[in-house]
């Protein structure tokens, strides 16, 4: 009887240090964080039709920019978002690329708006712009939480002895958000002045 209790005690001790519960809890944290990311991206997508219609009323000649935003939003909607997406690096990259295109299209739209003082002073546009800016901030916060959750999970999946448990139960490293323009960021900007600075 004592030997059986000893074996059971050793098994319990071995299992408590295997990392299975940590893998489960960090995986659930990723799912919750991912849901928040999707909610914020959806919030942004929902704002776009109203924003485009408001701009269209003032800047009819900016068809190309307006079409760019509409097409980018359609592309985002075309990416089938499922819980499994966070386990598929290729699908995750496609999702991130579509969201990046939409961000770029929105930036171009807001840059064009600078040419239309009446539009900038329109109450509807200002409200939509404020909502969009707030949503972009929420997206940044949600992505940051997701990045941290994936980091914690991936460390657990790759660390000993929990990596053995991860292999046994099929837990794999999950893809994470990356910087869309990583190469551009590493280029040092050139600063050139056309005229010499006055000496004082």
Explain what this protein looks like in three dimensions.
This protein has 200 residues and is an all-alpha fold. The chain has a single domain, classed as de novo design (two linked rop proteins), CATH 1.20.1440.20. It contains eight helices and no strands. It has helices spanning 2-16, 20-58, 63-78, 89-113, 117-121, 123-158, 162-169, 182-186.
Task: Please describe the topology of this protein.
Layout: H1 2-16, H2 20-58, H3 63-78, H4 89-113, H5 117-121, H6 123-158, H7 162-169, H8 182-186
Descriptors:
200 residues, mainly alpha, de novo design (two linked rop proteins), 8 helices, 74% helix
Query: Poorly predicted ranges (pLDDT <50, ≥5 residues)?
Result: none
Structural class: mainly alpha
Mind telling me the CATH class?
A: Mainly Alpha
Overall mean pLDDT: 84
User: What is the approximate shape?
Assistant: elongated
Kindly identify the CATH topology. de novo design (two linked rop proteins)
Count of alpha and pi helical runs: 8
Rg calc: 24 Å
Would you list the SSEs in sequence order as H and E?
HHHHHHHH
What share of the residues does DSSP label as strand, in percent?
under 5%
What is the CATH superfamily classification?
LemA-like domain
Helix content: over 70%
Give the CATH architecture: Up-down Bundle
Number of strands: 0
Number of domains: 1
Task: Sketch the major β-sheet.
Answer: none
What is the straight-line distance between the termini? 94 Å
């Amino acid at each position: 009887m004592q030997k059986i209790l000893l074996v059971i005690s050793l098994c319990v001790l071995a299992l408590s240090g295997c990392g299975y519960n940590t893998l489960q809890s960090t995986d659930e944290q990723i799912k919750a964080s991912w849901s928040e990311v999707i909610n914020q991206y959806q919030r942004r997508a929902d704002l776009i039709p109203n924003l485009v219609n408001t701009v269209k009323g003032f800047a009819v000649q900016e068809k190309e920019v307006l079409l760019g935003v509409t097409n980018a939003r359609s592309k985002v909607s075309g990416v089938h978002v499922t819980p499994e997406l966070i386990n598929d690096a290729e699908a995750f990259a496609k999702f991130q690329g579509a969201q990046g295109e939409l961000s770029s299209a929105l930036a171009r739209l807001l840059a064009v708006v600078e040419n239309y003082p009446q539009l900038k002073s329109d109450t509807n546009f200002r409200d939509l712009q404020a909502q969009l800016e707030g949503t972009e901030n929420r997206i940044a916060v949600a992505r940051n939480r997701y990045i941290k959750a994936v980091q914690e999970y991936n460390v657990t999946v790759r660390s000993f002895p929990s990596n053995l448990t991860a292999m046994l139960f099929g837990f794999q490293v999950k893809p994470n958000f990356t910087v869309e323009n990583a190469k551009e960021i590493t280029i040092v900007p050139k600063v050139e002045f056309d005229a010499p600075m006055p000496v004082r």
